[in-house]
Structures are given as C-alpha cells and as structure tokens.
Amino acid sequence: MTRAAAKVWGLETQCIDPAAHSPALTGVRVPDGFDADAFRKVVLENFDMSQGTGLNKVKGKVFRTGHIGHFNDLMLMGTLAGVEMGLDLAKIPHRSAGRAGSHGRPEGA
Predict the structure, then answer these.
(1) Which phi and psi angles does 81 have, rounded to 5°?
(2) Could you state, in order of their start, the residue ranges of all structural domains in the chain?
(3) How far apart are CA 40 and CA 53, in angstroms?
(4) pLDDT beneath 50: ranges in the chain
(5) Short-list 90, 86, 1, CA closest to 104
(6) pTM across the whole model
(7) SS3 (DSSP) at 51
(8) Contacts of residue 27, Cβ cutoff 8 Å, sequence gap at least 6
(9) Fold held by 2-98
(10) pLDDT digits over 52-67, tens only?
(11) Which of 4, 11, 41, 47 has its CA 20 to 30 A from that of 99?
(12) Distance separating alpha carbons of residues 54 and 72, to the nearest angstrom
C-alpha cells in the first residue's frame, strides 16, 4: 500500500528492484531540491507522526515509513494520509491520492 501511494504521488521509492522491497518499511525519495528531513519535521510538528530518516548517502533525500508489527490497514491509511498532508504543508510537489479537503477534513468542516 505504501509503495502504491508513493506511485500515485509521483514519488520514487528508494528500492528500485521490486523483488528486494522490504516488508518492514518503504523508503520514499523527495524530489531534487527538497529536504526529506525538513518534511519529516513538518509531519512531526503538525501531526505528531514520526517518519524515519534516510541514512548515509540518502540522508535528506529519503523518508522511511514503517509498516510492521501491530500495524493494520486502517493504521497505515492514517499514516499515508498524514504523509500526504505533510507533503502539502512542506510544499513538496506531488499528485494527490484523493483525500478530501484541507488536513483531511471534509470541505466546510
């Protein structure tokens, strides 16, 4: 689901070999000229949701979303909505996955 969301957003995953995708987390690359760590800070400060940082050569270029343990589809959908709202707030270019209204609230709410 996380890799599908990244594809809809028009963002690349760090792992380019589908056979090597991790069942535990997905690394998502931000476009050149944008800082993944600044994005992570926006998400943490606005939604109290922590995303993993890119390590070594991909620091600042990748954020990591975990999807292991006691983590069901509903929890993942909330996580992906938070990521998309963070992309909006951080002004990172992406396509919308279709959430309704500002900050996930229905229009006028």
Answers:
(1) -65, -40
(2) 2-98
(3) 8
(4) 100-109
(5) 86
(6) 0.82
(7) coil
(8) 13, 14, 15, 54, 58, 62, 63, 64
(9) Aspartate Aminotransferase, domain 1 (3.90.1150)
(10) 999 899 999 999 998 8
(11) 41
(12) 24
